[in-house]
Amino acid sequence: MGINFWSEDDLKLLTDTIAADKESAHFLWNCRESRVVQLCGDVIPEGIGDPFAYLNSSKFVKETSLAAFGMLCARINSFIEDGTEESRIAADFSMRFSEDEDYRMCHMTVVILSDNDKRAVSFFVTMRFFREKHMAERRILDNFTSDKSPEIFARHIKRMMDCNPEREIAFIQFDVERFKIINDAYGEKAGDRLLKYLKDSLTVMCSDEQPFARLTADVFMVVIPFDEESEIIDFIHKLEENIGKSYEGIEFRLVFGVCIVEDRTAQTRTHGDNATLARQSIKGNALNNIGFYNGKLKNDLYHQHYIEDDMTNAILNNEFVMFLQPKYNISTGEIIGAEALARWMHPYKGLIPPNQFVPIFEKNGFILKLDQLMWEKACMKIRAWIDEGIEPVPISVNISREYLNTFDVVGKFNELVEKYRIPIHLLEAEITESYDADNTSDVVRKMKSCGFTMLMDDFGSGFSSLNMLKTTPFDVLKIDRGFLSEFMESERGRKIIAHTISMSRDIGLNIIAEGVETGAQAKFLQSCGCDAAQGFYYSKPIPVEEFDRQLHEKAVEGERKKK
Q1: pTM summary value
Q2: 272 with 171: CB under 8 angstroms?
């Protein structure tokens, strides 16, 4: 139904009814006839054909709300051109009704009148300034953090759930990926403006049945009713499309976690925590930015908690021990070195394999303490060999990429070499090939200038391997076990391995193949010019005492062959 269907008496009755509301402005807009009937207030002058375009270009909308208001205008235009299932939308903006007023928070409600094809033909618009009570609630919802009691938000959610007893409910939580980097690069004020833009965008995108709030820092949550799970994805994609990927020149990416409510009697906080877990489960995933909560995530969280609860005491109690995996000369069978690997000997849980604690330590930063512990244990072992008159072999230790920007790796290595008085060539360093080639190259160059041997670990595991070879002066290339096993399966793959080895030797790199599991692999590598290997075919990672025994046996065998 459009304005042309309203009689003059109807319009007068409506105008008289709402005229007493001095805090509001009301108007009807027939978009097909470009005609506006102002019912209360003097915000829209006569002769204006598109009131939303007028407000968007006027000084009635505060500059800080213009981005969100522009999003509202885009939605209005889509209703006119493409149609809509919605009958009402609402949003909050900082506005004023005349140029001599101060800006105040205003709640805009737009009732949509559509034709049989669901295309909007008329809009009934109400703009009402917030009263102080509503402003207080809005300030709480804008700023409440998880350590405060979010009664208002919980009350809004309960009201929505009560109004939708037969529908499913989803808690959708999202944050800005690497928001701290944005704050560091652009400043906290720019970061705050981005967060305000996201909050304002939610006021435009979310209906009254979709309560939302800002949680801690850059974390937001929306709760929506739905009938099909595809509606959740549609809502998220629609949100991303309207918000975009940049604001004021700041590029950003949103990461979402979804919890579908299974027990309506559970507390709101529980569903929110589950959405948090789902969001955190896909951090760093370049291909997917939407995670769903399930039972496995809860088990993973429990596992993470007991790992993190025990990790500090584990350092103090010397529960992390060094295992060594021998490196062999393929031709002679001689042990030519070792890689230091951490193992956790828990007093109650027994041996905890590294894949159960290393990824957690990489996320929470504890990996730096573990790495430093392994560096020191490697130096102690080399010193012990020298003191015992045993011919030492180089031990390589891992340097995790997570702290290359924040920790003086070069200084620490030099300190350890001086502390234990060991030849610098006996302590080698392995760094995994990285997407952050520039930063890695800088560390490698500094280490090499001090005399350390540098190994590129996991070559071929999926980053920019060839570019790293071009820009970073490594000494040794370690072929990734996955690269080796996968490419060995075909003639074409074997040629790629052979040419990789040939190319590396041509540019002065030594080669070590990781993950060698069969004699056929060892023989093939030797035929390609690779003389060094490690893997289960030779030896799994073993305790230091076992390594010492093997090192002694190989030395005795070598002496016997010489005689």
Answers
A1: 0.55
A2: yes
Write out the CATH class of domain 310-549.
alpha beta
Q: Of the candidates 475, 388, 466, 479, which has an alpha carbon nearest to the alpha carbon of residue 424? A: 475
The domain segmentation of the chain, as residue ranges, is 3-130, 134-293, 310-549
Q: Are 207 and 135 in contact (CB under 8 A)?
A: no
Angle at Cα 312 formed by Cα 311 and Cα 318, nearest 5°? 85
pLDDT in 10s for each residue of the chain, 563 residues = 444 455 566 666 666 656 656 667 888 899 988 888 877 777 888 889 999 999 988 888 998 888 889 889 988 998 999 888 888 888 888 888 888 888 888 888 899 988 888 899 999 988 888 776 555 555 555 554 443 446 778 888 888 999 999 899 999 999 998 888 888 888 888 888 898 889 888 888 888 789 888 887 789 999 999 998 889 998 999 899 888 888 888 889 999 999 999 888 888 888 988 898 888 877 766 668 888 887 666 666 667 777 888 898 999 999 999 999 999 999 888 999 999 999 999 988 888 889 889 988 888 889 999 999 999 999 999 999 999 988 999 999 999 887 887 889 999 999 999 999 999 999 999 987 554 556 778 888 999 999 999 998 877 665 445 666 666 688 898 888 877 877 777 788 788 888 888 888 888 888 899 989 888 889 999 898 888 999 999 999 999 999 999 888 766 666 666 65
- Residue 466's alpha-carbon distances to 4, 288, 434, 445, in angstroms, are 69, 26, 11, 17
Question: Token digits for 285?
Answer: 């995933």
134-293 has which fold? Alpha-Beta Plaits (3.30.70)
Class for domain 3-130, per CATH? alpha beta
